[in-house]
Design brief:
single chain, 130 residues, mainly alpha
């Protein structure tokens, strides 16, 4: 094997194969695509590796939520979020600082409104002035 053949194998083909595998792994880990859509994308990526990968990454919508996280629009607008909701533990289950941090995260993700955040914070701190 000459230097240039080795160069092309190590610097071009191996990274391309790694990118191809990464694309397929990413495709099958997505939860927003149906089985048929995944199968069609897989066929495109396998039969046309460079073009299929490029088109897949250009057209795919970014996943903004972590696995298992509930989207903000799943909760009805009229449903208040209380400390007993699944994302927030009840008093006594964890310390207050952790609960406040979780509430702040929910507010930052626009799952809680500022009023709901303040009400829950008051409940945690024991000052029911809301």
């Amino acid at each position: 094997m000459t230097f240039w053949q080795l160069f092309f194998v190590l610097m071009i083909f191996i990274p391309l194969i790694m990118l191809w595998v990464f694309t397929l792994v990413d495709l099958f880990q997505r939860e927003d695509l149906t089985g048929i859509a995944k199968a069609l994308w897989a066929v495109a990526i396998v039969l046309l590796p460079l073009i299929g990968m490029l088109v897949y990454f250009l057209l795919r919508e970014p996943q903004t939520q972590a696995a298992g996280e509930r989207p903000a629009d799943d909760r009805p607008a009229s449903a208040p979020v209380t400390v007993s909701d699944p994302g927030v533990s009840t008093p006594g289950a964890a310390d207050v600082a952790d609960q406040l941090e979780r509430l702040a995260d929910l507010r930052d993700k626009s799952i809680l409104t500022d009023e709901e955040f303040q009400r829950e914070k008051d409940k945690l701190l024991g000052s029911d002035s809301a």
